[in-house]
Specification:
This protein folds into three domains: about 80 residues, MurE/MurF, N-terminal domain (Udp-n-acetylmuramoylalanyl-d-glutamate--2,6- Diaminopimelate Ligase, Chain: A, domain 1, 3-Layer(aba) Sandwich); about 210 residues, 3-Layer(aba) Sandwich (UDP-N-acetylmuramoyl-L-alanine:D-glutamate ligase); about 160 residues, Alpha-Beta Complex (Protein-Tyrosine Phosphatase, Chain A). The protein is an alpha/beta fold and about 475 residues long. Helix 3 crosses helix 5. It starts with a strand and ends in a 5-residue tail after the last strand. It has a nine-stranded mixed beta sheet, with helices on both faces. Strands 21-20-19-22-18-17-23 form a seven-stranded mixed beta sheet, with helices on both faces. The chain is built from 15 helices and 23 strands. It holds the Pfam family Mur_ligase_C.
Length: about 475
């Protein structure tokens, strides 16, 4: 199915097409490009124009460029524009304008991608749904997601992120959401903001792009909720709060088990019970917010609540799996919780609660008692209070339920030093050091959490744990 014709793309961007072509997709990377894609020659670590010839050789329908690159014929299928990023943005706006889809935009300090994937799951059961396959939430990710949106899309979910002030509003105005959701506001990217109130104001700027009559779905349980509510009112939005402090989508209770979250809620005046097949209080809150979004879109709440039980977290965001340590004995396994994609104090507390609620297995390893083991990497971009924010994690009430805590990175050393000695495992400067010896600090029967900011590279420890056994497999769940 044609996504962009040469004439439509030229009209959208104000560019010039050298030939008549038709594209079935849009790509910015020759490594993942599919035949028929329009290749967008963005400038990042390298200039995308260097890869145009390769993209065309690999079957690209055309390339969006600002000049004809060396080694590319003047007769090659090209869409020539003044600026490639601006051209991609124009395609995104044009895709939004031609679509009758109901659009949801999601932001928040924690849980954006997981919530986007929940929405993809529940809305996908009720209509043709479009969302980015990865965490494409920045200045090129949002227009790319929009530019890839098929004309017949019924629901679109757009994730919007930020690192600095002033990033969210322009992306929201490009997406023009019918519903905008804020998952939470937490101490993340504090190095770019004076305080958490500044983060709340930036997150709330997502409401500036709402369509007339649009809906703001807001976490009601935050210290900054009033800031979010005021910004939504200023934008003229209809406000739907969710959480324990909400009267319409009210969180009544959360029960965590090894790999399940049972949520008791009151929704629009009636009781509702739903399950999420992975553990996490934060998943319960985001699931409730998803139901508020579904209702705002006019979709079926009951079907959405059922469909939430089919959702699993994206890789690195709390996914749970069993790793077999010895192929000769199927009992010699660990449960691995991979939460190594990102971290801040709020998400760290949530991950520790999940680990504390997990049940290790006794009598199967070198140590007779199964253990709850945490491997924690630095939380980055926290600003001038980063040392105190790391140390304060040691005050978590969930620490007492853990058996051993290993730490990676100079910032996590402060947390490690604040721990009771009986909980301290190893501290190392780099993830590579722990990855090399991680097989020595785990045992069959353990539940092992790996959590840290992406820049801490604790994902290397996850990889090493998977290599500790030859047969990683998805954690089995009961329906």
């Amino acid at each position: 199915m044609t996504l962009w014709s040469a004439s439509d793309a030229a009209a959208a961007t104000g560019g010039y097409s050298t030939t008549d072509w038709q594209a079935t997709g849009v790509s910015i990377d020759t490594r993942t490009l599919q035949a028929g894609d329009l290749f967008v020659a963005l400038k990042a670590a390298r200039d995308g124009h260097e890869f145009v010839a390769k993209a065309l050789e690999n079957g690209a329908a055309a390339a969006l460029v600002s000049y004809i690159p060396d080694g590319v014929a003047e007769t090659a299928p090209l869409l020539i524009v003044d600026d490639v990023l601006m051209g991609l943005e124009a395609l995104g706006r044009a895709a939004r304008a031609r679509s009758s889809a109901r659009v949801v935009a999601v932001t928040g300090s924690v849980g954006k991608t997981s919530t986007k994937e929940m929405l993809r799951q529940v809305l996908g059961a009720q209509g043709k749904t479009h969302a980015a396959e990865a965490s494409y939430n920045n200045h090129w990710g949002v227009p790319l997601t929009l530019a890839r949106m098929p004309v017949d899309t019924e629901f679109a979910v757009i994730e919007i992120g930020m690192n600095h002030p002033g990033e969210i509003a322009p992306l929201s105005r490009m997406a023009r959401p019918d519903v905008a959701m804020i998952t939470t506001v937490a101490a993340a990217h504090l190095e770019a903001f004076d305080n958490i109130q500044g983060i709340a104001l930036e997150k709330a700027s997502i409401f500036e792009g709402l369509e007339p009559g649009g809906v703001a779905v807001i976490n009601a349980d935050l210290e900054t909720s009033m800031i979010l509510l005021e910004k939504a009112r200023t934008a003229g939005a209809r406000i739907v709060p969710f959480g324990a402090q909400s009267e319409s989508f009210t969180l009544k209770g959360v029960t965590l088990a090894d790999d399940i979250t049972v949520v008791q809620a009151q929704v629009l005046g009636g009781p509702m019970l739903f399950k999420i097949m992975t553990a996490g209080r934060h998943f319960a809150m985001n699931g409730l917010g998803v139901l508020a979004v579904v209702d705002a879109l006019g979709a079926d709440l009951g079907l959405a609540a059922i469909e939430l039980s089919n959702w699993v977290p994206p890789p690195g965001r709390g996914t749970r799996e069993t790793v077999l340590l010895d192929t000769a004995d199927e009992d010699l396994t660990i449960d691995l919780i991979d939460d190594a994609f990102n971290a801040n104090p709020t998400s760290m507390a949530a991950a520790l609660e999940v680990l504390a609620a997990s049940a290790p297995r006794d009598g199967v390893g070198r140590v007779s008692k199964g253990r709850r083991v945490a491997i924690l990497g630095d939380m980055l971009e926290l600003g001038p209070d980063e040392v105190a924010l790391h140390s304060d994690i040691a005050r978590s009430r969930h620490i007492e339920a853990l058996d051993e805590i290993h730490c990676v990175g100079p910032l996590m050393r402060h947390f490690w030093q604040a721990l009771p000695e009986r909980r301290r495992g190893k501290w190392v400067e780099t993830a590579e050091e722990l990855a090399d010896r991680v097989h020595r600090v785990i045992d069959a029967g353990d539940v092992v959490l790996v959590k840290g900011s992406k820049g801490s590279r604790v994902s290397l420890v996850v990889d090493a744990l998977r290599r500790a056994g030859r047969m990683p497999r998805q954690h089995k769940r009961d329906s």
